[in-house]
Amino acid sequence: MEIFQESSNGFESSGQDLRNQPPAGPPPPPPPPPPVGYWERRVRKPPISTTAQKCDASDKNEETPRLKLKPLHWDKVRASSDRAMVWDQLKSSSFQVNEEMIETLFGCSTSSAVPKETGKQNPVVPSPKMENRVLDPKKSQNIAISLRALNVTKEEVCEALLEGNAESLGVELLETLLKMAPSKEEEIKLKQHKDDSPVKLGPAENFLKAVLEIPFAFKRVEAILYIANFDSEISYLKKAFETIEAACEELRSCRLFLKLLEAVLKTGNRMNVGTYRGDAHAFKLDSLLKLADIKGTDGETTLLHFVVQEIIRAEGSRLSSTKTQDNTLRVDLECKKLGLKVVAGLGGELGNIKKAAAMDSEVLSSYVSKLACGIGKITDILRLNNSSKQFQEAMSEFLKKAEDEIIEVQARESVALSLVKEITEYFHGNSAKEEAHPFRIFMVVRDFLSILDRVCKEVGKANERSFASSVCQFPVPVNPTLPPLFPKINKATIPESSDDESSSSSS
């Protein structure tokens, strides 16, 4: 069939045959957008942005640019050639980023950053200093109450101070005695008081007067209290340094933590493609705390959820590789349960790190210094001529044991702090010198483990819901082995009724 066009001379044939042309109609509708935010559903790779399409149209020979994702603002670490680092142990093939899933979840979109609200802190008003004076009625009453509560007499206290016996007094009583120590002026007043004076002393004043009759009484109290606390403080410090050493070893040798770092490194490099943060070879562990702040397009899934899901799949496949694949859906769920159990157990593998994070290096060092200074105080008391022979023997016997214990604790402290420095440099390289707190690396890992535990619980619940919804989409099959509820009746076995019976029943 030919097409006729209108011209000045009338209608002329265009010579175009429309018999083989498709019928005209509206343009086909655009394809639906890909689903977003579901782990169990295969997602379609999102379309390239209009800018990328223009670039691709201008140069078709060039490779299609990769979709821009939300950035991960991490702190890159420069690899050091003069020391071994954890990043040297990463294998290039042990973890592969799911490109389709990460582009679907974390495609870049314009969003205004909401600044964090900082609550107004009320200014701390220093409490006014209260001037407490010995012989003050209130202080005297408090001392008397403490003595009655401790149920001790002044004769027992004086005898223990003369002999240097720490066991008979106890830590609580010795600490209470130190709080009772009077000033120099008040000490003079108590010593000058005479028994025949018309002014009578109360129970607290009488007790302090009797104690002050012992030479250097409150110096003795300090020495005996030091001895009473010595064993427990030495034990605490040794255990603390052992925990720090174990935490360093856990952080260095944990296979799963190394796997997690590799997953985060590769995922972060994919997120930061085309930026100065991309192509990183290492990052500071502080960046782990930022993974839960980057949310996907569904508003619920975070970058940490994505990393955990990928590691769960890898660990589950590793543990269930010998199992049969008779039911794909159920085996997939069991595989994820195995992987989730491994990832959720990371906190248990790094238990000493949580304990070390609660410690303060300055406090531990002050404890060690305090123990060393206490030895000097006891030595000074022994030099005093007024010390009894029994007291000197008790102090000398203690010093022989205490000096060796303190030297050992000081050595353990040096080793522990050295290991902390090494493990920090093992992860952070030269930037470890910028750490304000020596134990900061433990604090960061502890906080990350707390976030990871919460995310693992959320992922487990999401996997259970996904499995339940998938099962509901399929009809329940009938089990052919079950007997029928109502057996079929054979008509041949039923006797036919006679006409008489039928007529009588109808009547």
UniProtKB/TrEMBL annotation:
Keywords for the protein's UniProt record, in alphabetical order: Signal
Recorded topology in the membrane: Single-pass membrane protein
Top-level lineage group: Eukaryota
Residue segments, region Disordered: 1-66, 113-132
Coiled coil: none
Example of a GO biological process term: actin nucleation
Protein location: Membrane
SMART domains: FH2 (SM00498)
Presence of the UniProt keyword ATP-binding in the record: no
A molecular function GO annotation: actin filament binding
Domain (FH2) ranges: 59-478
Name of the protein described by the UniProt record: Formin-like protein
Organism: Asparagus officinalis
